[in-house]
Amino acid sequence: MIEAVRQKLLERREVLARLQQRFAEARIELVSQLTGVKTHFAVDAVEISDYVLRRYNEGTFSFSLDDDPDETQLRHSLSLAHLFNSPSPRLYLLPQYAIEVWGFVRWQQGKFPTPSEFCRQALERLQELDAEYKQSLAAIVDKDGALSLDKVRDLVGLVKSEEFGPLCVAVGEFVQSKKYGETLQRLLETGKVSHRLELILDQYGIPLTDLRLPTPREVEAVFKQFPPKVREHNPEQKQADSRAILTLRNLNHLLKEKEENARVVLITRDQAILDAMNDLAGQVWFGWPDAPEHCHGIETIFVYLLMRGLPTVVEAGVNADGSSSRQAVQAMSAWLDEAADRLENRQQAILAVLERLAESQTHSERSGKTGRLSQRLLASRHTSPEAFADLAQAGEYVLAETSRLWDEHGKLQLSQALPQTPWVREEFLATAESEHEWLRQTGLAEFGASRRDYDLLRKLWEFLSTDSYRRLADREAASVWEEMNNQWFGLILHGVLSEENIALVIREVGQKLAPQTFARQITKSWNAVLMSPVRFSEQHFRKLIDDLQTWNPQQTQRLHDISREFNRVLAEGMIERKAENFLFLAYVFGLLNLWSVALEVAEESRKLLSHPGQSHFSLEIRYFIALARRRLAEADPDLAQAIQGYLLAFREIVPVVNARPSEARYLKEKGSIVLLYHEAKHRLGGVRPAEIEEEEEAQLGGVAHAKELLQRALQLAQDDRRLRLKTLNRLAYAEVWSDAPALEVAEAYLRRVVEEFKAAARNDAPDTPLGGWPNIRDTWVMVRAMRARAEGNTQALDACIRTLKAISPQHIVNVLEREVAEELKAQGRPLLRELQEADLAYIGELSEAERQVLANHIELLEHWRREAASGLFQ
Amino acid sequence: MSTPGFSNDPDATAADYQNPLPWLERLSPAALLDWLRNAVWTGDARPVLTPNSAATATHLANLFKDASTELNIRLRSVLPTLVREWGHRDPSEALDALLVLTGILRCAAAEKDIGRLTVERLNGVRQEIPLRQRCLSVLAGIGGEPQTIEIFKSYLLKIDYTALCYRALFSLDRQYAAGQFHAIVDVYGESGKSDNLNLMLRALLYRQLTPEEHPGALGQVLEQTPLSQLEKVLRILKTVGIMLLRYEKELMVEYLYSDPVAGWTMGTTATTLNTAHWERERSERIIQESERLFLFSADVRESWQRSLTAGSTGAERPL
Questions:
Q1: Is B252 at the interface with chain A, CB within 8 A?
Q2: Does residue B284 belong to the interface with chain A, where contact is any CB pair within 8 Å?
Q3: Element (H or E) spanning A794, and its range?
Q4: What residue of A is the nearest CA neighbor of B318?
Q5: CA-CA distance, A121 to A123, in Å (whole number)?
Q6: What would the pLDDT profile of B188-233 be if each residue is shown by its tens digit?
Q7: Residue B307: closest C-alpha in chain A
Q8: What is the ipTM of this complex?
């Protein structure tokens, strides 16, 4: 099963690659429109012959993900109808293709009789008919169609007889060939297709004689670019294509030399030409690195046709010269991005997952051992080897669904586009009409096709133009588009995550990491504000993460970029598994407050390290793992488990600090872990859990050691205000758990926190949120509560409990923040927008960890309240 | 002595003057020889009356059309003797008349004598070139001997005789002629007589050959033309309305203009050349040149447009 799905994906990969190319080509055209570059289109001779011969089923038309001949034929025919019937632009024939059309016509001539030959043949056949039939036919003429039942029966007999066939074939051939001829004549006589390249060059004052034709040597070199199979199959054709490519190059070079803002683009269904252009672009001798931008597949025309139906494009309309408004171009561009994203990246990722599954399975079959991935899958979500089949089935389902949804979306989009392109509709109706007429003439209509079919078709087309259909189709297209998203995400995560974490991601994130949703979520997240940055090595990650201010509205775009990068890395991470990519994913999951997911992905990152050792990057991974473990422990309501978590975090952070004792983030993390361990232990009654060895606890050190670490971190965090704030807060909080709590010291740290806020407020662009820090507020309350506890002041403790319970994003302005606000007022500056909005709604959800900490503290204070009430401290 | 202005034969009667054929039929071979010698050398053909001495040969030839087979046989036997008799001091008109008669009567027996005459006895004579042209022309009609072919070959590249020799060789040794096409193009070019080449080619292609023969003939020419000369040859062919089109594996002959009298029509002929055994470069150069002609020759492109749209001939045909 896996192999079958994998095979299907591999086949589809080629189609996708082509489709992706088409999207890229459409994008290039959009950019050209925006930058005012004039594009002239040339067509391959094969497009002309396909169109005039109504030949739609040869070769490939890469739009559908699965091969459906009927759909392919329809799309190809629509593309050609659009290409050759839209009012603009004119299509040119390069000399090679003009000659090919010439030759094609000559070749066709050899196949069809002249009118006189046709008449002679038809008459001869008529003469050979039985006398009875002849009489019946004569009766039609004599009686003007009003025949006796017997005569009609005779004629039906003729139609059914073997004699009718040759008569029909002759009529059919003639009608068909006449139609072909008329189509070509129309194209040439109306000037829709022209062989006169000077019509392009004249516009720029360039004489045609300046155009250089390719040399035989060049032709040979281009010819060699075609794969041997293609060359051998039809060498003459490929030589003509080679010459056409070179002429196209020379034509474009000529326009460039004359510094004209114009280009000539060739449209072809021949993938071999498109591939050759790509290959040639990288060759110095060819001298045309932009070659691929000058050759479009016929599917690109279909993509363009579809985009005509986008609501914005419909509203904005299309200019007389075929160009679109800026707004329409932007809408088309966005659709292309979405389409590319939905198809290519996800398919690739699914393929990679399945490939790895297959490899893993093969490995286990060969070695008799279960592969790492298989082990995890078996352990985490499946109980038997049949699980592989389940996953493959899921993959197959997703594939089929993606394909179906893409086709559905295409059809809906197309139905939207057709009313905007009446020439395509007319072309189709005219074809249907002439087909019907032909059937009527030949009598074949008796066998099925009728006038009614044609009328139904016309009604259908008319319906597509109605507003009610448009509204419905708009909604449907959007809904189908969205549904496509829902299929892939779950499967793709199978390559990385355990079942629980997959469920968690789907529950918390939904089916995709949409830029806007991600930005909204992160901007309001305290978890994100409190999260220390990870130092990435790769520049593109550093640009996204270094100095990230998640709360800052001016960095919304950066958040969008992070989510896009996340999607890209997630997809590519399945194909190219790099440690740093996985750490980036882990970091984003951390930002999203999905710490169990972050931890699992970070562990995967560590496994991917080629040189674990003590490198800077390996330290960052361990640091992040320690952070993730600490955050998970903080959120764990089970104190025994939390202690285990702190211990694991400690084991990670120790070698990190040892390797880099002067890194403030590492020191602060170690200090926090130690402190939180002791808090948890204290709350467990101050007894060392049985699972922890004494020696190990000794390594942790006491709260004093934690304070020492935090103080060192504070000294080193000179250039990082948020780290200083967090460290000061921890230091203040450490006093709460000290063996000999010094409340004045704690308050002094909190004063320094206020100073930091004030200093930040002095900047036009504060480097930290100026209020609402729930953890600082929590510390502030806890310090007050300690004093109240020491004084046995139950009222004060009650007030502290109330405050803690009230800590929420909606209740934010406390004493500290008020001071900051006053500081701003004193400077004569208006309050910052964030503070003016009293509830600071821009910072929203408390994370699970923060909520848990608050719950723990409330519980603790209630315990103290009971102690105070019992007079224990008095 | 004969009576001047009446008859060179005293036996001729008035009836013989009215119809000289019976009189001629009665002559013995020796008498026929004498009569013909006299007629040709002096212009006195009595009892046959000719309008003037210059037209004697044509007049006699017309007369002999109605002669009996026996007389024709006798005439063919005496003509070589008379040709042999002609010497460079004899009037050139006499030889011209003899050659005309030889040609019209298709006197193949004179082939060797005319051949020898062409090569050996015309040098330096008055009217050498027209006489030799006449000899070659007659040989083209009656000849077929290897020596004759060699004569054509030896005079082929002499501009005065090129047209005659080339057309003759095209019949007698087409392979050789095809191989020399590019050479005669040069000869015409160097002599500044390109118009004559055009005329010769039109005569060759549209009178001597039928359209059905064109592909074979053109195929041989193009196959044997050195690659370096190919473009030049193709351009010459275009001047006489012929272009070659490549479509898939076939190289087709395309007429750029119509000439219903000659039996060739633009846009209707789809004859193809057999190029399967050609080296690729040859085909490529032909294609390249046709592209060049297409791109830069307005008349070629006009023909293209006309032949594909409703032109005078294309309209009645579908594709």
A1: yes
A2: yes
A3: helix A794-806
A4: A178
A5: 5
A6: 999 999 889 999 998 898 888 887 888 889 999 999 999 999 999 9
A7: A102
A8: 0.75
